[in-house]
Amino acid sequence: MNVTVPDSSKATAAARRPPNKLPRPADVCWCGSGEKYKKCHKDADQAFLKEERKQLEANKVLPGDVSPKRDVPIMIRRPDYADSGVPSRGSGRNVRTAEELVRMRRACRAAAEVLRKSGAQVKPGVTTDAIDAFSHDLIVSLGGYPSPLNYRGFPKSICSSVNEVICHGIPDNRTLKDGDIVNLDITVYLDGMHGDCNATFLVGDSVDDESRQLVRVTHECLMKGIEAVKPGRPISDIGRAIEVHADQHGYGVVRSYCGHGIGDVFHTNLQIPHYFDARSNTRMEPGMTFTIEPMITLGTWEESHWNDDWTVVTKDLRRTAQFEHTILVTETAGEILTRE
Ligand code: MF3
Ligand code: CO
Ligand code: CO
Fold it and tell me: Which among 166, 179, 123 has a CA at the least distance from the CA of 10?
């Protein structure tokens, strides 16, 4: 099945769209007229949102066909879940030894290289399955194992998340359309360590301004989160910095998926929320490695799930973007490991 999805980039007329948080009927209208909302824009807003919902439904991403599992040569070191699908807890530590850090740096550098080169494959007409094949072959050629492959049963080597897909999209035979945005999430297992990074790419040159701004601000959110990394400070500082920046643009922060400790296991118990959560009171320590990977939404931060066990989409079908780095806490700050 090859589904043709109309270009959704022209579907949202940003000029007339009402604010995300609508006034109550008796409150003053958002437009500055001074009139009561119910006498002013209320009916127009309802009509706009109904029409937009119709457009978003008509243009939503549909599941395609998933190709058979790709092989990894037998000489390549595999994580413990490669056959069973069930990851062990590993050491569970979040602070790495100097020797582990040497290997961690190699895995992270490889992931960054694969992300850059896979991103260069993004263009209209290319299927996400073709990008998966490209990434898989490159990871293997670098001596690595593509960490997503069979992780808790995930069927492919990377995650590819288009438009309203928040994360964990499964590469399939859907072709990328001019005007789409697509996140590629690359994780490489090399020398016994995982390196995890992702980025959102524009497809072609007709991506609408609203989506371009979302992608830019989401990257800024990641960088604000990284700038908040400081030994001795609680993990909650990271999410606070991200949430403040997203709020300034009226964007949502996805709450159900967090950054995570990473090292000899893909996901340790350590969670890094991208919103402020006072319960995240673990103090950052030199030698800790974890990811920061904010998912930012144009509209609601609430999600729904496809029935494929993986794909997470925004509940309102509006677009979402994400960027991710693996970070090392140094004596003074956060160092980005997923760099070439
Ligand atoms: N790379 C994702 C993350 O950033 C996890 C993907 S899990 C998979 O944590 F199973 F979907 F691959
Ligand atoms: Co991650
Ligand atoms: Co990732």
Answer: 179
Nearest to 243 by CA among 273, 215, 211: 273
d(CA 185, CA 169): 9
Question: What confidence tens digit (pLDDT) does each residue in 289-310 have?
Answer: 999 999 999 999 999 999 999 9
Domain boundaries, the chain: 10-59, 98-336
Q: Which of 132, 197, 266 to mutate to test the pocket of ligand 1 (most atoms within 8 A of CB)?
A: 266
Which structure tokens are listed for 261? Answer: 């400790």
Cα–Cα distances (Å) from 98 to 95, 192, 287, 326, in that order, read: 10, 14, 8, 16
Asked whether 54 lines ligand 1 (CB < 6 A), one says no
Percent of the chain with pLDDT over 90: 93
pLDDT in tens, 90-102: 777 999 999 999 9
Q: What token pair was written down for 258?
A: 């967090």
CATH topology for the 98-336 domain: Creatine Amidinohydrolase (3.90.230)
170 in Cβ contact with 66 (< 8 Å): yes
SS3 17: coil
